[in-house]
Design brief:
Helix content: under 10%
Largest sheet: 5 strands, mixed
Radius of gyration: 27 Å
Distance between the termini: 103 Å
Order of helices and strands: EEEEEEEEE
Structural class: mainly beta
Strand order of the largest sheet: 2-1-5-4-3
């Protein structure tokens, strides 16, 4: 039996788990970094103390997708399972397989590089002034 605490505000209220809201007790032993599904509610396990029988969890922002679709042409790596946005995508290599930091799902990503240009005016052209000549 493991007692679950909602550590969404960790560590704003200190490191004592009893200062956080108790969600309830479960009949399984969760693992850190894995998604825990309790009666349809999904949580990410951040703290686990098997000896004292408790875990600190955060509710997932969105439920895991049972049939994820590829994500294309996004400004950051987005997990197709949970929708987590990797805001440090720019630090990653151009292509790799990685584990989502939110749900633990394995994803493959590829950086697509495009070249675009921006222009701005500096100095306008000076046209040569002329007039139509009559009778030519």
């Amino acid at each position: 039996m493991i007692k679950l605490y909602d550590i969404t505000n960790w560590p704003k209220q200190g490191f004592d788990e009893t200062k956080y809201p108790c969600i309830g007790t479960i009949d399984a032993t969760p693992k850190i970094g894995r998604v825990l599904d309790v009666a349809g509610q999904q949580f990410r396990v951040g703290i686990l103390n098997r000896k004292d029988g408790y875990a600190g969890v955060r509710p997932l922002a969105t439920s895991l997708s049972a049939s994820p679709e590829p994500r294309e042409f996004e400004p950051n790596i987005i997990c197709p399972y949970c929708g987590n946005i990797d805001s440090a995508s720019f630090e990653r290599s151009d292509e790799d397989t990685t584990e989502c930091g939110e749900c633990g799902g394995t994803i493959h990503y590829q950086r697509i590089v495009t070249v675009e240009y921006t222009t701005e005016p500096v100095k306008p052209p000076k046209p040569i002034r002329a007039h139509w000549v009559k009778g030519t």
